[in-house]
Design goal:
The protein is an alpha+beta fold and about 700 residues long. The chain has 20 helices and 21 strands. Helices cover about 35% and strands about 20% of the residues.
Length: about 700
């Protein structure tokens, strides 16, 4: 609105400058080598481009990290100097953009056209300690409102640059510090630029405020404290050992980090936190710290489970790529339930002092921040932390380690030039359009190295990212390598004598309309006696922009049905099967377990790509009230045999992640992620496996 008041800016394009900074350590053992990079992006590109690491975020500069003798580390004068140096440096770095913030500048855009552009300081991506530095507030205060630190839940009016300037003029330094949370010695760098209010430009931070902060540091720790208060240290340890076994028993799933060794978490990473969020509620866990998540049944009150459920739903809603008014309503509902149920921690004596925690308090600002900046998944510190790898850590490793900063800058400059050259060559048709992850996938599937790639894919959630544009409505499943078998030979190998009948029933359904019932006798079914091509895996490609994906929002995952996986036990994955398009969500799908992929050519010349599956039945007609998960169990016929079918590959939506319903019983030590699907008879459909599953299984 302010830009529009100036007639000279009419018709110009507004370009918000998105900034992000975060200290990173490249070496500890050989000396503390820290760097403080500043990254830049613009608000005119799509979130997918920024999150897919396709040069949507660029290294802008490195900030100085002043060091002094140890005795001066906590000296107020030295600390004040470091704060002032940061803001002075940022103002200097951005000074070349200042003229373009009031007078439109003619710029050449990527499409080759020239446009008049007006720049402006946009959202600033930073974790809470850096937000304190950037906004000039006192630790434990909120950077966006003036809520008191000992009662953040009460809220308060918005904190603005105009208000802070007025308070600094009227109050003494001590009063401003104690009563308003303002450090009068800090002048934010945004004061040097028009239309910039740093208090209103602090971006939401899903990684540190939600995943690492509220989930790991708060909820997980509180549950551990509750167990100690309720059962004592010995009793708490016994229950945590059982929870540890449950973590290890979680079946494998593409992109899900597994914890098969019941390891202790003395050092948490963001991936550890996110992986444990995925297995927390449905597998009867309510949190985890130092190895384990507390079990629900018999260990914690149900309101603790509801607290964690509401929080996880908030996290998954806020992470969606497209947020509408209905989404905001769901977000508001999840936050209200979280605030309501978390009172149980006060009631049981874990949080008698209340919940005045800046990172939890930040949740109340997400709705307003979404209205200002759009979906928060494009403004998360996970983007800058990922950029550390290519912009700082890898260039540092390539350097001589002597005065490495200049070498790091030179490496980044050359990488940017190479990326620009490749883009130009591709546009001119001199190079094929690169799809690096897709090419790696194809190459490894046709070579003997696929087992190694499979392991990487399961452990690395980035492995499913592809750069295809969305050209499909729902999902696409394709088969991988194959070997030939006859129908009787495959029936013997699988131990399913009725395989030929199942194939005949499948052919009857394919050759006749869906409404035609199966004939009573097998003599009326089509007969197939030809060879089969048997596959041990298939790849499902689907649109999932809310997850880590390519520029087009596409992801690819591998579904396995293999008798020997990594030279160990078999692995037969579970899937979502589309059965009724007239409904939405889980009502339109069924759960099944893939026992074999195969294809064959029938006498009509058509090739049929199929999957032999074992159906699962829903335990109830609605999700579990406590966890919000659908519950399923393996389906059996009246004679006790498995309920099997052959289905077309096109009816498979994607992988499904099932987690056992453990109940109150302890997990036997013999149970692990290889055999848990065979041992247990009741499962939760894990809607927290990823964001796409969250939308599907709602």
């Amino acid at each position: 609105d302010e830009i529009a008041r100036d007639p000279s800016t009419h018709g110009a394009t507004f370009v918000p400058i998105i900034l992000g900074s975060d200290k990173t350590t490249v070496s500890v053992a050989t000396g503390q080598n820290d760097y403080w990079p500043v990254y830049l992006s613009i608000g005119n590109i799509h979130n997918n481009v920024r999150r897919a690491h396709r040069n949507g975020v660029e290294l802008l500069s490195f900030l100085a990290i002043p060091k002094a003798a140890k005795k001066y580390t906590d000296d107020p004068t030295f600390r004040r100097f470091k704060k002032q140096l940061f803001h002075t440096a940022m103002s200097r770095i951005l000074s070349s953009l200042k003229a373009g913030m009031t007078v439109p500048q003619v710029m050449k855009c990527p499409d080759g056209h020239f446009r008049r552009a007006v720049f402006g300081i946009g959202p600033y991506i930073a974790d809470y300690p850096e937000q304190v530095l950037i906004s000039g507030i006192v630790q434990n205060w909120c950077g966006r409102c003036i809520a008191l630190p000992d009662n953040l839940d009460a809220g308060g009016p918005p904190r603005t640059a105009e208000l802070m300037r007025a308070l600094i003029e009227e109050l003494q330094a001590g009063a401003a510090w104690d009563e308003w949370g303002i450090d009068v010695n800090v002048v934010p760098f945004t004061e040097d630029f028009p239309r910039a209010d740093i208090c209103q430009l602090l971006a939401p931070d899903i990684l540190h405020q939600l995943v690492k902060g509220s989930f790991k540091d708060h909820l997980v720790e509180w549950v551990g404290k509750y167990l100690e208060l309720e059962y004592g240290k010995a009793g708490a340890k016994e229950r945590m050992m059982d929870i540890d076994c449950r973590i290890a028993a979680a079946p494998p799933f593409p992109g899900l980090r597994r914890f098969p060794d019941r390891r202790g978490f003395s050092q948490w990473t963001g991936d550890d936190s996110k992986a444990l969020m995925k297995v927390s509620v449905p597998s009867s866990y309510t949190g985890c710290l130092l190895v384990y998540l507390p079990a629900i049944e018999g260990h914690v009150p149900q309101d603790i489970v509801r607290t964690l459920r509401a929080f996880l739903e908030f996290c998954y809603i806020v992470r969606q790529n497209v947020i509408t008014d209905d989404t905001l309503k769901d977000l508001r509902n999840a936050l209200e339930r979280f605030h309501h149920y978390r009172e149980v921690f006060r009631d049981v004596g874990v949080r008698t002092e209340g919940f005045s925690l800046p990172r939890q308090h930040s949740l109340v600002h997400y709705e307003a921040l979404i209205c200002l900046f759009g979906a928060p998944n494009g403004l998360c510190t996970s983007i800058t932390e990922s950029k550390h790898i290519t912009a700082v850590k890898k260039p540092w490793r390539r350097s001589s380690k002597y005065k490495a900063l200049g070498q790091i800058l030179r490496t980044n400059q050359r990488l940017s030039q190479l990326a620009a050259a490749r883009t130009d060559f591709e546009a001119r048709g001199m190079l094929p359009i690169s799809r690096p992850r897709e090419n790696i996938l194809k190459g490894l599937q046709t070579s003997g190295a696929s087992q190694h790639f499979d392991d990487v894919e399961d452990e690395d959630e980035h492995a499913g990212i592809i750069d295809e544009r969305p050209a499909l409505a729902h999902s696409d499943v394709k088969l991988a390598r194959c070997h030939g078998k006859s129908v009787p030979a495959l029936a013997i190998e699988l131990g399913i004598p009725a395989l030929s009948t199942l194939i005949a029933q499948f052919l009857y359904e394919q050759l006749n309309c869906e409404s035609t019932p199966l004939p009573a006798g097998a003599s009326h079914l089509p007969v197939f006696t030809g060879p089969l091509k048997v596959f041990h895996s298939a790849t499902a490609t689907f649109v999932s922009p809310s997850d880590l994906s390519g520029i087009g929002g596409m992801r690819r995952e591998t579904i396995r049905a293999i008798p020997v996986w990594h030279q160990g036990p078999a692995r037969y994955d579970t899937i979502f099967v589309s059965t009724d398009d007239t409904f939405n969500g889980m009502l339109s799908m069924e759960i099944a377990r893939v026992l074999c992929f195969f294809s064959f050519i029938y006498t009509n010349g058509r090739t049929y790509s199929c999957a032999l599956i074992h159906w699962f039945d829903r335990i109830a007609d609605e999700p579990d009230e406590l966890t919000g998960m659908w519950m399923v169990r393996p389906s059996f016929m009246g004679n006790g045999s498995k309920n099997l079918s052959v289905i077309h590959l096109d009816s498979i939506v994607r992988s499904a992640h099932l987690l056992p319903i453990f109940g109150r019983e302890q997990v036997p030590r013999a149970v692990n992620f290889h055999n848990s699907l065979d041992i247990y008879r009741g499962f939760y459909v894990n809607r927290f496996a990823d964001y796409h599953a969250f939308e599907l299984a709602s």
